[in-house]
Design brief:
3 helices; about 110 residues; alpha+beta; globular
């Protein structure tokens, strides 16, 4: 299992409860949830990948269980990983997904036009 299936189901539930249209794509060795053709939230192994606004990035990193998303030795600003303990409670998962959804309208799409 490349990613936590239980976490994927929890994310689906939250997005559906919020009536958000999304698409799932397997990428980066995990699963990504695309909203408006943009990477919004995802899972790599058992960690949540959150795409948040740059202004929140530094304060997010100060939160327990939050760390820089770093695949290649260079962290991607605006992307963070949340450890399983940081999203164990439904309210915590909902908080982070909402931050991702709040940023989504401003996020750049990588989809080719």
């Amino acid at each position: 299992m490349a990613y936590d299936e239980y976490l994927a189901e929890r994310i689906r539930i939250v997005l559906n409860q919020k009536s958000v249209s999304f698409e799932e794509k397997k990428m980066m060795g995990g699963l990504c949830f695309m909203v408006n053709d943009k990477m919004c939230v995802g899972i790599v192994k058992d960690s949540l990948m959150a795409r948040i606004c740059s202004e929140m990035y530094e304060s997010a990193l100060a939160m327990q269980g939050c760390r820089k998303m770093d695949f290649s030795g260079k962290p991607l600003r605006g992307f963070v990983f949340l450890d399983p303990d940081a999203i164990d409670m439904d309210n915590d998962l909902i908080y982070w997904i909402q931050k991702c959804l709040d940023f989504n309208p401003q996020a750049r799409s990588s989809k080719k036009k």
